[in-house]
Amino acid sequence: MTLVKICGLSTPESVAAAIEGGADFLGFVFYPRSPRNVTPEQATELTKPVPAAVRTVALTVDADDALLETIVATMRPGLLQLHGHETPERVADIRSRFGTPVMKVLSVASAEDVAKASAYEPVAGMLMFDAKPPKEMKDALPGGNALRFDWQLLAGAHFGKPWLLAGGLTPDNVAEAIRTSGAPGVDVSSGVEDAPGRKSIPLIRAFLKAAKAA
Ligand SMILES: O=C(O)c1ccccc1NCC(=O)[C@H](O)[C@H](O)COP(=O)(O)O
């Protein structure tokens, strides 16, 4: 069955809906520019009711060791999602320094972007392929922009690590995205919101139902 990560959670209600709907991963964003930003203390509270079978994910962007140390010490995430320009060496360093599995995100607009994954396969526990925002999109975030990329770029691809497809997924297009890309897992944020940063409980339920049925 397709793995599903619901990202950018910031309320107890949305966390509960994601768990009840069968999410495998719950994502918490530590990036002050994001409308989904949470503090380590908020994430710690939000993740208290999360059952052990559901993995909590701390999303950071080119974070320094001090921030990672604080997040790991307070929230104790099951996975660190690195959504910046972290090199393979930095990914390996973070993994060994903090003893937490790492998911490295690749920003994709072309086949060359997908090919960059091979450098991360030895050091990351998981990979994610997300849409690369175009340069002309001035206020773009590193992720969470409701942008999709050409899912065919991943069709037939094999990676040495489990991977998730992200970017512009919705309850309406997730089944087609899974079929086209062959993704073993998917990640969503904007597609389950009714305003930037405001998660919709009905959309979370609908996304999980559609992805799990695909
Ligand atoms: O969601 C954010 O605000 C965010 C900020 C900075 C870096 C990454 C961010 N989100 C990354 C995610 O994991 C999203 O779920 C992924 O990019 C897909 O986003 P969307 O297209 O909105 O579903």
TrEMBL record:
One of its GO terms (molecular function) is phosphoribosylanthranilate isomerase activity. SUPFAM superfamilies: Ribulose-phoshate binding barrel. It catalyses: N-(5-phospho-beta-D-ribosyl)anthranilate = 1-(2-carboxyphenylamino)-1-deoxy-D-ribulose 5-phosphate. The keyword Nuclease does not apply. It comes from the Bacteria. One of its GO terms (biological process) is L-tryptophan biosynthetic process. Residues 4-209 form the N-(5'phosphoribosyl) anthranilate isomerase (PRAI) domain. Its EC number is 5.3.1.24. Signal peptide: none annotated. CDD domains: PRAI. InterPro entries: Aldolase_TIM (IPR013785), PRAI_dom (IPR001240), RibuloseP-bd_barrel (IPR011060), TrpF_fam (IPR044643). Keywords: Amino-acid biosynthesis, Aromatic amino acid biosynthesis, Isomerase, Tryptophan biosynthesis. Pathway: Amino-acid biosynthesis; L-tryptophan biosynthesis; L-tryptophan from chorismate: step 3/5. It is an enzyme of class 5 (isomerase). Belongs to the TrpF family. NCBIfam families: PRK01222.1-1. HAMAP family: PRAI (MF_00135). This is N-(5'-phosphoribosyl)anthranilate isomerase. The gene is trpF.
